[in-house]
Specification:
By secondary structure, the chain is of the alpha/beta class. It is about 40% helix and about 25% strand. Helix 12 links the parallel strand 13 and strand 14. It is globular.
Length: about 400
């Protein structure tokens, strides 16, 4: 089945809000065996929405629309769909009970404006939204389907998982589509492509390979339509095994989360140039408290000395951005927080602060356990601050994964 996604909202169109809905929906639909052919972002303008819906309904088996379902005047999706399908607005008892329940649970009085949330086109089927007041609406028209969902990401995702995808699977016959991710670190995308070209050219026609580069990392995504033989990866590992750090995760922080959880190891962090980014990504995942004990953002030399135990002589002799300092940072935080493993970073993220000896983009990273401390110098050669932070973060995760696999 072919699906088009339409995300509505001026805030998305002008870049005020990042449109995460498209990527989340596409990922969920693909995993369920559905073929997303197109995504569109449309502003809160009636004719633009009408044209997008009409185009999508002619091209697709199912159209999924998010946004424009709130109680304010700029939320026009519901009325437009009512007109598009030649229907009229009626009050849904299911939607009204849901609105009342949510307002009562929050201690709010139900106003006429909010009661209007229960108005839906008479021709649609309401899919109850347990997390919000905007109803999810399912339209069937001439063998095709349009589903209108709220634009609030957590509401949309819950509805997709619990209401929309199961109903789509009941309505349409879906193909078996398998996606597999291989995380590759330590080699550039173009060099990787040259290295694995013989394997790529030999892939069966039902397997599509995509290169997805991010900061300091390339994600190889295999999209498999139909049968899949896992042994096909042996050829990839034979060529690029030294650069592969893991499989079946979207990101390196997710891989670290999975690895530490499965092996029962604990981690602490001491961050200077990454400013807490390593800890932030890990703690954004549910269950991080089982392995992440804490971290120190040691931006000043005083904090490196007084909190992490870096020797004053080390800082005087070698400086804050040095192998000696980053090793002592990693060992200090691991010892003080009593963890199995530790990560430390120190460097010059930029765009200022570089010297001829230590230019912007110079970063030292260390990973440590009770017996080993490994440090690595990186020279990113760029003055883009966030890029340097992101690349340092991914490099640190990759070093930690390799330490665990080699020593634990």
């Amino acid at each position: 089945m072919i699906i088009t996604i339409i995300n509505i909202g001026d805030e998305l169109l002008i870049g005020q809000v990042v449109n995460t809905n498209a990527s989340t929906m596409s990922r969920m639909l693909t995993a369920a065996g559905m073929d997303v052919r197109k995504t569109m972002v449309i502003g809160d303008e009636r004719q633009a929405i009408w044209d997008a819906v009409d185009e999508a309904m002619h091209e697709s088996d199912a159209v999924l629309v998010t946004g424009g379902l709130g109680p304010t005047k700029d939320d026009i999706t519901k009325k437009l769909l009512c007109e598009y399908f030649g229907s009229e607005l009626v009050e849904s008892s299911m939607a009204l009970e849901n609105v009342k329940r949510i307002f009562e649970s929050r201690g709010y009085e139900l106003t006429p404006v909010n009661r209007a949330q229960a108005l839906v086109p008479k021709c649609c089927e309401v899919l109850n939204n347990d997390l919000g007041t905007a109803p999810c609406m399912w339209f069937s028209h001439e063998g095709k389907v349009l589903v209108s969902l709220p634009g609030v990401p957590f509401e949309m995702e819950w509805l997709m998982r619990n209401r929309v995808i199961p109903k789509l699977q009941e309505t349409f016959k879906t193909d078996i589509i398998i996606t597999k991710n291989i995380l590759v670190q330590g080699i550039g995308e173009s060099f990787l492509s040259d290295l694995i070209e013989p394997w790529e050219l030999a892939l069966p026609k039902n397997i599509k390979l995509a290169y997805l580069p991010v900061a300091g990392l390339t994600k190889l995504r295999l999209t498999i339509h139909g049968d899949y033989d896992p042994s096909i990866l042996k050829g990839l590992y034979a060529l690029a095994g030294q650069y592969i750090v893991g499989e079946d995760c979207e990101t390196l922080d997710e891989l670290v989360h999975k690895t530490l959880t499965e092996r029962g190891l604990t981690l602490s962090t001491a961050e200077s140039c990454t400013g807490g980014n390593i800890a932030r990504l890990l703690t954004s995942q549910a269950g991080a408290s089982t392995y992440f004990m804490g971290g120190v953002v040691a931006y000043s030399n005083e904090v490196k000395e007084n909190i992490l135990g870096v020797k004053h002589s080390t800082l005087e002799t070698h400086g804050a951005v040095s192998e000696e300092t980053v090793r002592e940072m990693a060992e200090g935080v691991r010892t003080r927080l009593g963890t199995d493993l530790a990560i430390a970073t120190t460097g010059i993220a930029g765009p200022d602060g570089g010297t001829s000896e230590k230019p912007v983009g110079t970063v030292w990273i260390a990973v440590a356990d009770a017996r080993h401390t490994e440090a690595k110098l990186l020279q990113f050669g760029a003055n883009r601050r966030q890029q340097n932070i992101d690349r340092s973060t991914n490099q640190a995760y990759a070093m930690l994964i390799r330490l665990i696999c080699q020593k634990h």
